[in-house]
Automatic annotation (TrEMBL):
This is Ubiquinone biosynthesis O-methyltransferase. GO terms for molecular function: 2-polyprenyl-6-hydroxyphenol methylase activity; 3-demethylubiquinol 3-O-methyltransferase activity; polyprenyldihydroxybenzoate methyltransferase activity. Residues 1-21 are annotated as: Disordered. It catalyses: a 3-(all-trans-polyprenyl)benzene-1,2-diol + S-adenosyl-L-methionine = a 2-methoxy-6-(all-trans-polyprenyl)phenol + S-adenosyl-L-homocysteine + H(+); a 3-demethylubiquinol + S-adenosyl-L-methionine = a ubiquinol + S-adenosyl-L-homocysteine + H(+). It comes from Qipengyuania soli.
């Protein structure tokens, strides 16, 4: 089995997944999170791609109506590392009873204000996911999060613990490749497309490592799908996994 923590920076105490410096970094971005031209502009470009993958995964998992506007009606959803709610709000519009959790109190405060202004009833909480008594959820999402946590193994175990029987887990994360080092850190952060210090390449996780961690937690991972970039298409779903990828997972049978 691969050790997904081999390449990561030094971890905090076992089971602690939040890195205080990471929470502080993202907390400083809270006020600009919903500005499509601000510091989170790349997330605004990425979100439609993630949502397309997520919608298809939801329909395939629950056999829903492909044309239905609220396929998550009657289901609960948990978005871990929710930031200011960029994914939580679409999940709520898809019909889910949504809870968003983030390490930075500034982010959940901004998320709550934005949701109220949009007329959406979303529960937001700040803190360590393992310390929150929030139960289990039909859908659990962790988008662009695992590369920021202190203990990846503990984090994946917490994801599995929050997944209700018959539930679906959806994750996205950068791959640890020469291409991701060059483009996501060298180019994107170098040219100001992403705030400097957002990513640390040694913390990126390969699909094989993620699959091992999910299997260890009793989950079976789907075939990964890449998120690629081209000048013609922009960010788009692709078979190319070299930059970023998405997966689903469910309890092993």
């Amino acid at each position: 089995m691969s050790d997904a923590t081999t390449h990561s920076r030094s971890n905090s105490s076992a089971g602690q997944t939040i890195r205080p410096e990471e929470a502080a970094h993202f907390g400083k971005l809270a006020k600009d999170w919903w500005d499509p031209k601000g510091s989170s502009a790349m997330l605004h470009r990425l979100n439609p791609v993630r949502l397309a993958f997520l919608r298809e995964a939801i329909d395939l998992h629950w056999g829903g109506d492909l044309a239905g506007r609220k396929p998550l009606t009657g289901k609960s959803a948990l978005d871990i590392g929710c930031g200011a709610g960029l994914l939580c709000e679409p999940l709520a519009r898809l019909g889910a009873d949504v809870t968003g959790v983030d390490a930075a109190p500034e982010n959940v405060a901004a998320a709550a204000v934005h949701a109220e202004g949009a007329g959406l009833d979303i529960r937001y909480m700040a803190g360590e996911i393992g310390s929150l008594d929030i139960g289990q959820f039909d859908l659990v999402t962790a988008m662009e999060v695992i590369e920021h946590v202190a203990d990846k193994r503990a984090f994946v175990a917490e994801l599995a613990a929050r997944l209700a029987p018959g539930g679906l887990l959806v994750m996205s994360t950068p791959n640890r490749t020469p291409a991701s080092r060059l483009l996501m850190i060298g180019a994107a952060e170098g040219f100001g497309l992403i705030p400097k210090g957002t990513h640390h390449w040694e913390d990126f996780i390969t699909p094989e490592e993620l699959g091992d961690l999910l299997a260890e937690a009793g989950l079976e991972m789907s075939k990964p799908q890449g998120i690629a970039y081209s000048p013609a298409k922009g960010l788009h779903l692709s078979s190319d996994l070299s930059l970023n990828y998405l997966v689903t997972a469910r309890r092993s049978t």
